[in-house]
Amino acid sequence: FTEETIVHEGSQSMPFWYDNSILKYSEVEKTLTYPRDWTEEGVGVLSIWFRGVSDNAAEPMYVALNGSAVVTHDNPNAAQIDTWTQWNIDLQGFADQGLNLANVNTIAIGFGDKNNPLAGGSGMMYFDDIRLYRPAETAP
To answer: Which InterPro entries has this protein been placed in (predicted)?
Structure first.
């Protein structure tokens, strides 16, 4: 299922409904086939465009690689930002947690605290243009 009206670029985005009232944290995960080596061509930044809804529950938004290396967005209210916003994540943040960037098998985007799950709220998010960049090439 894709969203075809609320998009950042192109013709579709990924809608994601999170509900942390029961499961404590919510995430969507993709198993990668290629590119799994996130050191190729000098890439160093993961870029994700997201858009929330102003009345979403304020839950921490995170990206997890290989199920364990987690980087959380600096803004605890990111889920309530109702305009398209780019989140640039330095891949070194994952490597500092012991992740081998030359062997990335899964990427997950989630809400809540994956390492310390607590009951929370719910909301609707949209994601688009998930890309890897060289640090100097990060899209504006």
So the answer is: Galactose-bd-like_sf
